[in-house]
Every structure is written in C-alpha cells, then in structure tokens.
Write a structure and sequence with these properties.
The protein has helices spanning about 20-40, 65-75, 80-90, 105-110, 115-135, 145-155, 170-185, 190-205, 210-220, 225-250, 270-275, 285-300, 305-325, 345-360. The chain is mainly α and about 375 residues long. Helix 6 (about 145-155) packs across helix 14, helix 7 runs antiparallel to helix 8 and helix 12 (about 285-300) packs across helix 14 (about 345-360).
Length: about 375
C-alpha cells in the first residue's frame, strides 16, 4: 500500500491517489494525449468577434443590434413574435426551422426593464454565482493559497459576464443560471438547482443537455426524487418549446430563409479555442491557453466530489456537441459552461501530483518471515 501524500491545495487527496500503478500510468498517458489534442485549438476556426456571433447568413446587422431592436420594439408595445420576425428578415437572418428564432423569455424580461435595470440584473446574477461557488469551494481549499487560486479561476471564468453591453446574448444569462444550478445542487437539496436549470433552458434551448445530464446522474445515484424533478423540468420545457414552435409558425412566410444547419464537425480543438476566447485565457497565446483548458478538465476529473462529476459530464457533453455541430460563428455556445470551467486549474496541481505519485511508486512490502 502507498502512504498517502499530503494535499497541496485541496482539503483531501484526489481520486487519482487511490489508483493502481498500472491504471495511473494509463491515466497519465490519457492526460498527455489530452494536452496534445488541446493544441488543435491553434488551427481551429473561429469567428472574428462577438459582433456577429450568431450571424447565420451574413446579414446587414450584428446579433446585438438584432436583439436590441427586438427589445426596443417590444418596449413600444409590439408583440414578440412579429417584432422578432421583422428584425430577422431585416437583418438577413433565417427564420426556419423554428429554433432559428430565440425563445421570448429574455426579450420579455429586458423589455420590462430600463437598460440600466438590465445591467444591474446581470451584475447581480454574476455576483450570486460567485457567492454560491465561493461557499462550495471554501471547504475544498482550506489554505489561503488554494482559496486565492480558486477565486482567481472563478473571476477568470466570469470575466466576459460582467460586460453589460453583451447582455443581449442569451447564452450569457443561460450560462450563469447553469453555474448557479451546479453550485446550489447538493445531495438531498436539488429544488433550487432544478429551478435555475429550467430558467437556463427557457432562455436558451441549448441548455437542455444540462437538464439531461443532471437527470441522468441523479438516476445513476438512485436519487429518485431529484431525477423526477429534472424530468419535470424537461417536461415543462418541452411544452414551452412546442408553444414556441407554434407561435413561430404563425409568423414565418414560405420564402423566409432557412438556416444552413448545424453540422460544423470542427472537433475538440474548436471547443478548446472557444472556451479560451470566452474566459481570461484569451489573454494568453493559444499554445498556452489550450493546455490550460486540458489541465482544468484533469483537475475537475480528480476532485472527489459529486459536483466535480457533474461538471466533468457537462463539460464533456458540450465539448462533444460543439465539436460535432457548432459552426465557426457558434463559438458563443461555450458561454453556457464557461463561468466555473477554470476552477479545475486550482484543482489540477493535486490531481497531477497524485497521478505521478501513483504512476511512479515502486515501493513494495516483502514478507521475509512468518512468526506463528
């Protein structure tokens, strides 16, 4: 048996500390491969900037102008669906299929508030996310240096979310609600997490995979009540989406443009580059930022907490979805998972150290004599 090594930053050894030598060496090989694959981010395509983050057909206006125009029309009394249809046509955006038009939730909230109120609401939500995650992370990092590392990682993951001028992006809000849902969910306490997860999906339907992941993990852990809660949220969302599809059908014309589809097949490197661009890692060269994203995933995988399992699953699912379906101008999808993604960097030193300790350990206990 190996003697446990005292943790560096975290309160307890990672799950990698218990691996056999053979398994640890295989895991180290996997980490090395992940680091190499993360360098594909250097060659991954990416849209020029957030101004045309979702522009489907190269229309004459930016996405932020599109969303602002819809909200302004609603503030002057125009219903959402006619206002959205007119704005999409004017900007050269597709109206088909129905998911090309955003759900009305965010526009309705913003239309009911003055611009300053929207900014204050956004900042309050970011602050709530930081407080909720701080409460979850403080016990995991008992020493000041670990707490400082986790705090810097959280601030680095939320740096984009403070920018009130980007408040028109639905993914910005949905990502914050997903982060809040993850932070508030604990064994036996899930109602708030389900409620905020549903809020994310009602703002942006691409948050639905998060609900599915949380429901699946609740089932695997035999948390039946929680699994039913997530299933109920999925049911509510399905009803809302069906009503949305019906409403969109009422304003779409036969000659309205159709979306080019979502089959980008851009690979894991695109996810890595998008995550780097949506966090403070954008300040670093991609040759450095890419491996840091990979190390963050390793850190999350090593933490011995149900929260870490959920974070790894969510990141893996969205990495898969973005690698398969996102186009180069869909990089903003990564905002759904960005807020807490870099916390894994604060967990990575212990995870990597435990992996090396398990892989390189050669101590053996030899029994030379048995005394009866």
């Amino acid at each position: 048996m190996r003697r446990p090594v005292p943790p560096l930053l975290t309160a307890a050894p990672t799950r990698f500390a218990e691996l056999s030598q053979r398994t640890a060496r295989a895991a180290l090989a996997g980490v090395a491969a992940l680091l190499l694959v993360s360098l594909l981010a250097i060659a991954a395509p990416l849209s020029d900037g957030p101004a045309r983050a979702g522009g489907e057909t190269g229309g004459a206006i930016t996405d932020l102008q599109l969303y602002a125009g819809i909200v302004d029309a609603m503030r002057h009394g125009e219903p959402y669906y006619p206002a959205a249809a007119d704005a999409l046509r004017a900007g050269g955006y597709p109206l088909q299929p129905f998911v090309a038009m955003r759900l009305p939730t965010l526009a309705a909230v913003q239309a009911a508030l003055p611009p300053a109120g929207v900014a204050i609401l956004l900042w309050a939500l970011v602050l709530a996310v930081l407080v909720a995650w701080g409460r979850r992370l403080v016990p995991a990092f008992p020493r000041p240096v670990g707490q400082a590392a986790a705090a810097v990682a959280m601030l680095g993951g939320t740096v984009v979310f403070w920018q009130a001028e980007l408040a028109g992006f639905h993914e910005l809000w949905a990502g914050l609600f997903i982060a809040l849902s993850l932070a508030l969910r604990t064994p036996g306490r899930w109602i708030e997490a389900v409620a905020f997860g549903l809020c994310a999906a009602l703002i942006r339907e691409t948050a639905t995979p998060f609900l599915l992941v949380m429901a699946a993990l609740a089932l695997l852990e035999r948390q039946r009540a929680e699994a039913l809660g997530w299933a109920a949220a999925l049911g509510v969302f399905a009803v809302v989406l069906a009503l949305h599809a019906q409403a969109v059908a009422g304003v779409v014309r036969p000659l309205d443009p159709v979306s080019p589809g979502w089959a980008g097949m851009l690979g894991f490197g695109f996810f890595v580059r998008a995550l780097a661009s949506g966090t403070a890692l954008s300040l670093l060269p991609l040759g450095v930022a890419g491996p840091l994203v990979a190390l963050s995933l390793v850190g999350w995988a090593g933490w011995r907490e149900p929260l870490a399992l959920r974070m790894v699953a969510v990141l893996a699912v969205y990495a898969l979805l973005m690698g398969l379906f996102a186009r180069a101008d869909n990089f903003y999808w990564v905002l759904l998972v960005a807020p807490a993604s870099l916390v894994g960097l604060a967990l990575a030193p212990d995870a990597v150290r435990d992996l090396f300790a398990a892989a390189l350990d050669r101590r053996r206990i030899t029994v030379r004599r048995v005394i009866r």
